[in-house]
Amino acid sequence: EQVSETQQNARIAMNMISRDIRMAGFNPTGATFNGLTYGTSQIQIKADLNGDGDTSDTDEDITYQLDTSDSSHPKITRKNTAAGTLQPFAENIETLSFTTSGINGTTISITARTRNKDPNYTGDGYHRMTLTADVIARNL
Known about the structure:
The protein is built from one helix and eight strands, in the order αββββββββ. The protein has one helix at 2-23; strands at residues 36-38, 42-46, 61-67, 75-80, 85-91, 93-100, 105-113, 128-136. Strands 1-2-3-4-5 form a five-stranded antiparallel beta sheet, covered by helices on one side. A hairpin with a 4-residue loop joins β6 and β7 (105-113). The radius of gyration is 16 Å and the shape is elongated.
């Protein structure tokens, strides 16, 4: 059950982050802004989704980042700049990385683990899975 939960959690996170990256840089009015900004384990995505010439509205300036401040509960957080709040996005995520790949491409890698240890499993007891995806930002 936990392994299935881990897989579903990682896939949902990958799908939502990929969707937002695909929209990065959407700019129907020609406003000036950087659609993607990378960090080691974070990415900021900007898009003028409603075509009003800025990226200050809901879901137009989003940051995903890895939060390992509590090693027993690592997670991805999501910040919607318009709302101003940092929210837990995906639980039990150990690694999150972003690298450029090709023209306007981003490679995303997410490693998720089970919520609880399995005493019958080797190593530290956590089952893990890593997902990797190449995503093209269509609007950059």
